[in-house]
Design goal:
Layout (H helix, E strand, L loop, with lengths): L5 H12 L6 H8 L1 H11 L23 E3 L3 E2 L10 E2 L11 H23 L2 H15 L12 E4 L18 H13 L4 H20 L1 H7 L4 H17 L2 H19 L7 H4 L4 H19 L17 H13 L21 H10 L2 H9 L7 H6 L6 H4 L3
Parallel strand pairs: 1-4
Antiparallel strand pairs: 2-3
Length: 390
């Protein structure tokens, strides 16, 4: 068969693997055709870079331990040697970010290669992604330990914090790519088991360590992102107990406690970056619905006793994404101009509700950025891999 139709060739593979979301996958691939090609070409040239490639003398951990620092904590100008002080919403540019950048790069490489495979069916994409996967999770010389004991540390105050767990949202697309790799037969045997062991250990740490429990019980986007991660990782592990737990938590905790009657997220709107945080939390909740929805349990259609739903949340934000100047709340103190992007909640909701307007808005918004704040807060960069039914 002549390999001239980048998208159609990919769909032939998908139809044998599972089927598509009513053509929305095909349309999404058509929109991002050139971007998928370009990012895959870049990703095929990248060698693995893990946490072992950089270190910080402020970390209480070792070579294989992920380390990051609280974004909004700064030296006290009156007492330079004293514990850091908080400036909410203002990122300290002197923080150690090398491990976070390495994980974002890892996610971008693997996500791009998985998306290209969905598009063109070439297994060499996944074979190259596997080199990065094994470096992070299996190779004893370069792997990351499966915990976040030293994430979001604050000089003079904490060697690590539970809210640091949000840093591993960048493993979301890695976990989804792993499901595709397993389905394709690229990752199997002892290699697959080694990666599964890493994620089992990390899931256990996330759900049993006090940091993990603190993050689970967070009232805002941190609690949402805990559920989103556990949902993604347990889906890869086929751990139905934790998948069911996440479904219940979404229905009984996240939606009722975080959403107001009008569909807004009051806890996010109180922040110094209300627009960005509202978008971020909506993306995370929508991704939970995308991961966990199944026949007989469609979270896209779920309403709680107060008639709150993800659909209501999307309806609330849609006008402000469509016309940002209509935003009635305060502007974000930083990165106001960088949002909105082509947020995954728009594409996922278009497919879930058959809303053409959502798709058209997603289509015309920016689909890529090199701004670190955007990269940090937009972990779903390759929505095609989430539209595949596995």
């Amino acid at each position: 068969m002549k390999k001239t139709a980048f998208v159609i060739l990919g769909l032939a593979w998908l139809q044998t693997a599972a089927a598509t979301d009513d053509g929305w996958l095909k349309r999404a691939l058509a929109v991002r055709r050139d971007q998928v090609r370009t990012e895959a070409a870049w990703a095929m040239q990248q060698l693995p870079v893990t946490v072992t490639a950089a270190s910080c003398d402020r970390s209480a951990g070792g070579k294989h331990d992920f380390y990051s620092e609280g974004d909004y904590w700064w030296p006290d100008p009156k007492h330079p040697d004293s514990p850091y002080v908080q400036r909410d919403g203002q990122t300290n540019p002197q923080n150690f970010v090398a491990h976070r950048q390495a994980m974002v790069r890892f996610s971008r490489v693997v996500g791009a290669l998985a998306a290209a495979y969905v598009a063109d069916g070439k297994k060499e994409r996944l074979e190259h992604a596997k080199k990065h996967i094994l470096a992070w999770f299996a190779d004893t010389a370069t792997l990351m330990h499966p915990h976040l004991l030293y994430a979001q540390a604050i000089k003079g105050r904490a060697t690590g914090r539970g809210i640091g767990i949000i840093d591993t949202i960048h493993l979301l697309e890695v976990a989804q790519a792993l499901r595709i790799m397993e389905k394709a037969g690229v990752l199997r045997g002892v290699e697959l088991e080694a990666v599964r062991r890493w994620f089992r250990d990390y899931l256990r740490w996330m759900t049993e360590h006090p940091y993990g429990k603190d993050e689970m019980n967070a009232k805002n986007n941190h609690g949402t992102c805990w559920v989103m991660q556990v949902a993604a990782f347990s889906s890869f592990l086929k751990d139905t107990a934790w998948m069911n737990f996440c479904e219940r938590r979404y229905k009984e905790i996240l939606l009722p406690a975080q959403m107001a009657a009008d569909g807004s997220f009051p806890l996010e709107l109180r922040r110094t970056k209300p627009y960005g945080y509202a978008l971020f939390n909506l993306d995370a909740m929508s991704t939970i619905c995308q991961i966990l929805s199944k026949p007989g349990a469609d979270l896209w259609q779920f309403e709680d006793a107060a008639r709150k739903s993800i659909g209501k949340g999307i309806s609330f934000m849609y006008p402000f994404v469509q016309q940002k100047n209509s935003w009635p709340y305060a502007k974000d103190v930083m990165y106001w101009d960088e949002w909105p992007m082509a947020h995954p909640f728009l594409l996922f909701a278009a497919a879930a509700y058959g809303k053409e307007a959502y798709f058209r808005l997603w289509e015309r918004l920016p689909h890529g950025s090199e701004v670190e704040e955007v990269l940090r807060n937009l972990p779903v960069r390759n929505p095609e891999i989430w539209l595949v039914k596995l």
